[in-house]
Hints:
Blueprint: H1 3-13, H2 18-25, H3 29-37, H4 44-53, H5 58-64, H6 67-84, H7 86-100, H8 102-105, H9 110-144
Amino acid sequence: MELNQILRKKRQEYHLTQEQLAEKLYVSSKTVSNWETGKTFPDINSLIRLSKLYHISLDNLLVEGSDIVRDIDKKTRLMTLKRYMWLPSILNLILILVVSQQRLLGKLSNIGTGLILVSIALNSGILIYFNREVKQEEQTTEVSTQPNE
Length: 149
């Protein structure tokens, strides 16, 4: 059984409306609705509150609703990929400034300029790779969070 089905079933077993559950969890009723339709997953704090409220272990909740584990893994990978994009971007900006401001900073040798241009090209390749990975991960995350029809 998927997490959204477990959440809906447990809420109904406890004779709670979505509004009542939302109030107990400090979220909006729209958020509860999104969880129960499978559009989104609860964050870790909400999962802990749900497990306490429904007297079900967090482990069972996560194992039975294993989609949430996959979603957390994908979001973690996406955040990591986005984090790795900053360094090459900043380095490229610095290198471009160095090459473009040679009059101000002093003329670089042809070898120095060539090495900097190669570094810019390599960093650009890294950025293209990470950008492609981020887009691919975002697409698979969007597909996996669509409700089952």
